[in-house]
Amino acid sequence: MKIIAYFMIVLAFNSVIISAHGENAFAHEGLILGMDAHAYPVQFINNHGQPEGLLVDIWTQWAYEANIPIRFKAVADDELEQQLMTQHIDLHIGASRDLNVDNIAFSAALSSVNHYLYLHQALSVPEKINELSMFKIGVIKGSLTAKLLATGFPTLNLRYYPDRHALVEAAANTEVYVIAAAEGFLRSHQVERQVKKGFLHYNRLFLHQSVFHPLVLKSNVALITRLSQLNVNTANIAKLTQKWLGKGQGASSLTLGIPHHFAPYASIGVDGLAHGLLIDIWQAWSHESGVTVDFVFDHYGANIKALKAGSLEAILGYPSTEIADTRFKRQQGLYQMKMRFFSYQEPIVDLTVLAGKRVAISTEFLSLDIIRKYLPKMDLVYMDDINAMIEASESHQVAGFIAPSALTQHYLLLAQKWQTFYQHSSLAFNANIELITLADQQYNELDVNLRQGFELLSTEELINIERKWILDPQDHTVSQTQKQLIFTEKEQAYLAQLGVLKVGYLADWKPMEFTGETGVFSGINSDIFNRIAAALGISIEPVAFHHWNELLTALYQGEVDMAGSIANIRERQNELLFSQSYWPSSWGLVTRLSEVNFFHLDDLAGLRLAVVEGYHLVPKLMREQPSLQLVLVPDIQAGLNAVTRGKADVFIDKLVNLGMTLKHTRSNILKMSILVDFSEQRSHIGIHPQHALLPPLIDKVLVTLDAPTQQAIQQKWVKHTLPSKGVHKKIWVDIVVVSVLFLLSVWGLIWLIRNSMQKKGRSRL
């Protein structure tokens, strides 16, 4: 998308003379502005019912500068002319010329937006749109993109969703492998991280460009004249444009200041190109964001001056006291260097012998406060760089120095001095490499775009980059701390003020969550919440419940702050906030051995189905299979007992929990199967609305849960919750069986989707 006509709102209508009375009335009464409710990112109504978008912001800025009160009103295309004729709205903030209206005047274009078909990264981009006819294409019902597809490509298999949230959820659960939307959709912070990872913004097929023109009645000459004389500050337009279009749209490159002589983190190679760990990380960021990075190498002080002057957009720096200037903004956690103590000729076994002695540190790497934490009794001396500290150690001016381990090793190897220096193994701590930008309270879109790009990098990518450049495994920091999460100053302040958060869980719902033998919160969800607490630096207090309904009620009422394994359904969205999905949540069926196998809801018609009271599944089951006779039970054990005693024909619950409970019950009359109709569902963390800023921070942690990590957590708790020795002769066989069921629930749907796609493709040939 781009802003046209020099980023200025000039409504180019015929000029007419207007009376002073008409102009004053116009300014006094204000304007009602019509808008489209579904044209993201130009104009739309958000989840809270408020108008948002590029044109909304432009008109809001225009009204502020003109001192004219305005109010936005969502208007459908087929109602637009009538709304203008009846004066329910004064003008429309921007519509396409495709509208067939006789009494409406179009102004000069304010903006344009491109519509794309975004393909999952597993799919290659075809030459023509019609080649996607075998795939389900997700699109928002009533949106301009949906209208373009329906009229221009009627043979496509469109799947409509009521809003952006529903489309995001469908993409996250791989219900669709193609998303149709306007540009900027994948850049929104509301789009789940795993969706951004699966649907890369450049893996797309162009559909159409829509140009937006403000509309007003031809007969309203007073308004036409008044608007034609007004404009918006071009600097403000540029900020609004970058806010909604992202850095990759507003500019093709980012100019980044890098410290010189900083190998193996960053340096200029013999080929004249930039190389190093940080260079590879930024190139990976460039690949995800579509923004080219221009590296500028200079010493730290010069980079600071260039940032102040505006010739650099960002620089890499360190947590030193040199930059306490409020004009700068830091993003911590880009990468952490391992810091160590080095001594000349003789190894230092006990650091207490250094009390009162001079130890060198670099002004570029560390602040005095950080060093005092580890070496409180030393006489610290600041020096300019690594070479100066090496020379001071050789001349016995200092007893040693503290510096980044990998950087120091590089210098010592180049100078052939490695054998004469020793590093103290017990003193090791991490120091952040920070991303520093100019602070601007009214404009932080650059920070947002930078942070979102890094959040798309997987832990595996960072680990591989680190292994390539940092040869000593003891100096690795990514693999030890998992992914380094980046928090803004506002986010850090929010996390710091949080008290202890209460996490609700079920006391007996193995292996997802339960109270262990020592009375502690255990299970898969305990590992998930512990990871969240550690990564965010917050404290949690587990609170056990015996029944699901009790837990859900406590969460609704704010008696607990969070709970895991919550389904994000529309009925709960007015009561709770939700994280992104984090765990497969397939449903299983338990029947008696004498019954036939059930796999679909249709198989259950007319049967007595036991289900835990309070599950979101209850109304959905009745809608889709009204002949079911529901038997409500308080918990999973009661459900199994109902089937065993003949009070119910079938019991439904989470697949993985059914598997573990059946093993503990040692029942030889019950069997289990997968309910294929609901195999694609996933679990979320439910959060009480009083913590409105918490969900996106939790999502930062959840996005690091890659497949190997999930598998390790799964195997840990499946093994842990198996019965004691002697109950089963083949304990490892049981582990394999439950693990296979878990993997089937994750991958079974993918196979079914692909098989269905192939059949559809063949049927159309």
TrEMBL record:
The chain crosses the membrane at residues 731-753. Pfam families: SBP_bac_3 (PF00497). The keyword Thylakoid does not apply. The keyword Transmembrane helix applies. InterPro entries: Solute-binding_3/MltF_N. Gene3D superfamilies: Periplasmic binding protein-like II. Keywords: Membrane, Signal, Transmembrane, Transmembrane helix. SUPFAM superfamilies: Periplasmic binding protein-like II. Residues 500-721 form the Solute-binding protein family 3/N-terminal domain. Belongs to the bacterial solute-binding protein 3 family. PANTHER family: ARGININE-BINDING EXTRACELLULAR PROTEIN ARTP, MEMBRANE-BOUND LYTIC MUREIN TRANSGLYCOSYLASE F. This is Transporter substrate-binding domain-containing protein. It comes from Shewanella surugensis. The lineage of its organism: Bacteria, Pseudomonadati, Pseudomonadota, Gammaproteobacteria, Alteromonadales.
